[in-house]
Amino acid sequence: MSAHKQVGTHQDAERICFSFSAVQKKKKAQRFPRLCGERFICAEPWSAPVTRMPGSLRLQCCRAFDIGNGGSLQNLANVILNSREMRTWSQLRVPERRCREWLLGRLCAKDAVRVLVNEKKGWGLVPSEIEIVTNDYGRPLVGAKLAGELDYPLSISIAHSEGVAVGIAGECRDFRDVGIDIEPATRDCRELEKIILGTSERSLLSMMSRFRRQEWLLRFWCAKEAVAKALGQGMVGGPWGFLVEGVELKTGRIVLKLAGKALQQLPRYRNRVFPVYTGCETDFVYATSVAD
User: Which fold has domain 181-291?
Assistant: First the structure.
């Protein structure tokens, strides 16, 4: 892939970050200029979702907060999307907020891929060289052109909620796919427990102090979503098809297995459990998992 320029590591790259502290997010967002070149890492590398995962996995996670500025986002789209992706984005028939989240999710996934590939190959990819497509189940995939030029497979996952987007990328030699999910820690959970938890899971949740009960309920929910994304066929049979079996309060690690319709559709996982790594940082709960 000689056409790609050699650049320094991502630590040396100039960053234009779309993440803000709680105070900064209250300020009027600046208008971002039209970006170009391989030196820009637009999203913020976010280590928390991958720190506790096995060190043998090559994973990179990035996040970005919605700046809520249509003109700036259009400029960003012009730079990070290729022509096919641009057509997809312009034809989205969803609320404007979802369009922005879609774009920022692609930004995060592309930057996560860029960091991984640059660390391994030194190619210095620009975002538009990384096409993100989806399969029949809606799973995001690295486009065929880049995938065919690499000598190892890449897996990506995207999540967004309430103005924040995250993307994770992994070199999946020893596992099939990665999944990530995120939720705001302040989400209204009054109806969530009865919707997503079975009897045994409610017993696990009852062990939590009342001060952390909502956080752990959201961790359970994110864990289910992360495993569903890693398996790549959506939440088959609903949340009750993904059963939380165990919790490590100190580390945030959750163990989950398939049940019901999910197990019927994916019978090869009958005797398998899925470790999920969860946490809470910067007012957001997250969960990350891999499936082989």
Answer: Ribosomal Protein L22; Chain A (3.90.470)
